[in-house]
User: Fold this.
Amino acid sequence: MLDAASGPLHPLARETLLAALDAGWADPSRLYAEGRAARSLLDRAREVIADGLGVRPGEVSLLPSGPAALSRAVDGVLHAARRRGGGTVASAVEHSTVLIEGRARASMSTVAKAPLVEVPVDSLGRVDLAAWGEAVARPGMVVAALQSANGEVGTRQPLAAARQLCAASGIPLVVDAMASLGRDDVPTDFDVLVGDGRSWGGPPLGVLVVREGVRWHWSGARADIEHGRHDVTPWVPLALAAAEAWQQTQAGRTNEAAAAHELVTRVRAAAALVPDTEVVGDAVDRLPHVVTFSSLYVDGEALVDAFDRAGFAVASGSACTSSTLEPSHVLAAMGVLTHGNVRLVLPLEAVRPARADDVAAFVEALAPTVRAVRSRAGVTGL
Assistant:
């Protein structure tokens, strides 16, 4: 398993989830004993996650998924600032939730108040800060969105500098940390933060953090559920499993990150030796567990199938869209090879104790597999 972007669950999170099916099944909004017990468990799960993120429990809302939380994060800032404008600033490598919804708002707007400004990135996937500063200073811009690090190529973004530029223009910064929470340092430079329990070995559960003092209001708010940020109470067993996974992951994160970084370095070195193959993203300032490489003369889907038949679960296409068949808008924005790309997202060692052996075997199979796929496509001599 070398594609852990969507799981699997940390073993102790799985145990917690199963136990919580009996202990936390009730609606936490009910006043009978089981409901009060579920409310207590939900509050405890929120406190664990909030403490790990360095924020107050009242700033944390739990939503059905990370992408749902990201959409809600941007929507809340836009709605709160609708009298000042409706413009969104985002890097060109952001999650499709931000880019597609931003483009849709711009196309449907009847007035010039809802543009989406996509800020270019360099060949490593890092945002152009000069262009970012110009974008957030434009009239009508009211929200900016930037990943803590890209989930496809691993490159970290300069959040401190980006937020400083946003603050100078009075624009809140929404930070998408869906790829990094639990695997990298928790971001501190944000006004609104988004995460997904799957990144730290938990279940699908969106985390939305809105700092006190940030003007935020959901356009569809109808009830005071999750601090007015959702209309459905979280399922308590999922919240408890996410909190348990967070505690377990954070306890050993430093050693885990160092080990994963070394394994990814080995994959990067092996891929770089394959003819006409490009390893993308920053080699140093990056997430410890993500790597992508692209090979000429082959199709990414064919490579994924070949690696699968060899016993390796890997991914291709864009990590920031809902379909792996979509060409990578991230690689296209970086100006690097988009054809024949393969992405690895290493699982936690606690989830996959044989992870190092898996990587060692993959490194051995990498060049022969690419060569075999090229040969079947009629490409020889490489």
Summary: Residues 319-324 have pLDDT under 50 and may be disordered. The two ends are 28 Å apart (CA to CA). The chain has two domains: 11-250, 253-376.
